[in-house]
Amino acid sequence: MSKRKAFITGLSGQDGSYLAEHLLEKDYEVYGMIRRHSDAESQDTRVVHLFDKGLIEADYGDLLDPSSINRLVALVKPDEIYNLGAQSHVRISFDIPQFTMQTNVVGTLNLLEAYRTICPTAHFYQASSSEMFGNEIDSDGFQRETTAMKPVSPYGCSKLAAYCIVRNYRNSYGLFASNGILFNHESPRRGANFVTAKIARGAAAINLGLQDALTLGNLDSYRDWGHAKDYVRAMHLILQHHEPDEFVISSKESHSVRDFCHAAFGYYDLDYKDYVKQDPKFMRPEELKKLQGDSSKSRKALDWEPDYNFSELVEDMVSSWESRFKTEAREA
Q: Which candidate in 18, 155, 163, 267 is catalytic?
């Protein structure tokens, strides 16, 4: 029996790299699409170990280039498609709203068209986001699959539009197309310009004497943070479900940016208040106050549970940055 084939956009990102590793453990053939940029040295750092071992295959492409998408999908003829490629930074989406909308909406539509016309029996996963909810919250303090969606950023708006077009294609063409509504998920592979990585990196650098302070924006926004390793397991389970659907993936806990600082600096018995400063330039034009997801449906229907709790996530990120700094010092 031949192996199942998976095609991942955004392969070189945090989620794409962990998903590739997880699918390889499940004995999949893994193919991916990487968007080329001029800094070739850092382009595939999260997956270079998989390339070096010949475990995965990938080629250049772009969600805004239908020809590259069609070529790769026709070449691979995947059993499962995971659309993880996106402009994924919420605050930056205010700076580049047109690009954010084009990539996240038109890009998803381009991939859906390739899926519909080339391999319509495949299963399709769309990386949707808790940012779609905006500040809407149910009376019990949670957001779930039935909560109203009123996003407060160009990123959230773009993800909601893509979410809707996925549902439309599923209903219009009978496709197995599902949305994973993932709440914030982090890891040592998180890009350094995201707040959790800035905090983890800053705490490790300050402890090692590499910097004196850390500048952040709003410390009192609350997020439901989980580990990306847990969340890519959920992505795979969503496509193994007996029917396509929408699923919230979350830790069911909410912590503030201030809490994250406390845990990260507390790893070294430091008080974050001695080192963290605030700068209005890091504030969003419209702030999202609190996210807390109810993943009860996913836990029951998919038999999914996270392995990492909040403290373990923070510890993993901080210790990873510490190891990275020490390795760089030895190699200098």
A: 155
User: Which of 68, 129, 158, 320 is flagged as catalytic?
Assistant: 129
pLDDT tens digits for 98-131?
A: 999 999 999 999 999 999 999 999 999 999 999 9
Q: How confident is the model at residue 220 (pLDDT cuts 50, 70, 90)?
A: very high
Catalytic residue among 131, 186, 246, 322: 131
Place 266 in a pLDDT band, splitting at 50, 70 and 90: very high
Q: Is 269 exposed, middle or buried (0-12, 13-18, 19+ CB in 10 A)?
A: exposed
Overall residue count recorded for the chain in this entry: 332
* Mean pLDDT (the chain, rounded): 95
Q: Could you tell me if 211 and 292 are in contact, meaning their C-beta atoms sit under 8 angstroms apart?
A: no
Q: Could you confirm whether 155 is annotated as catalytic?
A: yes
Residue 80 belongs to what H/E stretch? Answer: strand 80-83
| Neighbour tally for 157: CB within 10 Å | 22
Q: Catalytic site residue 131?
A: yes
Dist CA 293 CA 182 (whole Å): 9
- Cα 83 to its chain centre, rounded Å, is 11
